[in-house]
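Exercise 7. Predict the structure of tRNA (guanine-N(7)-)-methyltransferase from Candidatus Pandoraea novymonadis.
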Amino acid sequence: MKTPMNKLQNNGIPIKKNAQLSIASHNVGDLSETNRALYLQRIRSFVRRSGRSSKAQKRAFESLGPQFKIAYQSSTINWLTAFGRDNCPRILEIGFGMGETTAHIARNRPNEDFIAVEVHEPGIGALLKLIGQIPLSNIRIIQHDAVEVVENMLSEASIDGVHIFFPDPWHKKRHHKRRLLQSPFVALLASRLKPGGYVHCATDWQEYAEQILEVLNIETSLKNITDHYTTRPNYRPVTKFENRGVLLGHKVWDIVFQKKFFPNFPNKRI
Ligand SMILES: C[S@@+](CC[C@H](N)C(=O)[O-])C[C@H]1O[C@@H](n2cnc3c(N)ncnc32)[C@H](O)[C@@H]1O
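Solution. The predicted structure, encoded as tokens:
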């Protein structure tokens, strides 16, 4: 028997009829505070995939997890406890997949700390394996829904950048409401950015690229660093998956917005 959609979207807890939201389009920026909170609780932008971890991923998960994973909590992160330092830029990455890009960027930017959020356990094992191999000390992983992490574990104006590379596009129209990048979440993300901080998204799905551009444009505290899409910043490597697509003629759209009223950086870093 199929699980009703409303149960799927609320971690199996039925949603009362009068609490339901009508999200006809992705333009949901004008929700009331109550509806915004409900929206953030209900929609899950991921499904728990059944893929198994390899032996090496499991080993990395068990041996390095205790050192590099931070447990989800409903209070804000203590950066000094988490990274052993709290005086350098902090970048949040949402949905790192198998973590190749995360590790690549963290290796090239040793003076920044990376808080990487993912729910897929084999991917977490894969990133932990890279952390051990390279080795890296500036990544911490949270295995939890990023929406709740941003809402509860990050305080306002506490991060310098956000990376969201190839978020699940949820191709079918009836699934668009599951897309991560929608106005309420963008508003939440923007509130966590320091002035001058940036949001960098990349996608290979044109219609999602248009949506991302639109919802970032709607957020008045952000401004596009170009007029439209931007050329891929050098720090973002081209992944194997992306290369395959490019060979097949698929395009990739990079979008970078910056939080307004900033002093000196991060334009230099982009
Ligand atoms: C299409 S994959 C892209 C992975 C990677 N960024 C890349 O470029 O290859 C999207 C990833 O985002 C993760 N994800 C989606 N929504 C998430 C959420 N709310 N919290 C944490 N991870 C999420 C999924 O588990 C999945 O691994």
